[in-house]
Amino acid sequence: MSERIIKPARRLRGTIAVPGDKSISHRAAMLNALTDGEATIHNFLLGEDCLSTLGVLRELGVEWRLDESGDTPVLWIRGVGLRGFVEPSAVLDCGNSGTTMRLMSGILAGQAFFSTLSGDASLCTRPMARVAAPLREMGAQIDGREDGRFAPLAIRGGGLHGIRYRMPVASAQVKSSILLAGLFAQGETIVEEPEATRDHTERMLDTMGARIGREGPAVRLTPGAPLAPLSMRVPNDISAAAFWMVAASVHPDAEIHLTGVGMNPTRTGVIDVLRAMGADLSIDEERQAGGEPVADIVVRSARLRGTGIGGEQVLSAMDEVPVLAVAAAFADGTTVVRDAAELRVKESDRIATTVSQLAVLGVNIAEREDGMTIDGGGHVHGGDVRSFGDHRLAMALAAAALAGSGDVRIADAEAVAVSYPAFWQHLEELSQ
Ligand code: S3P
Question: How many domains does the chain have?
Answer without folding.
Answer: 2
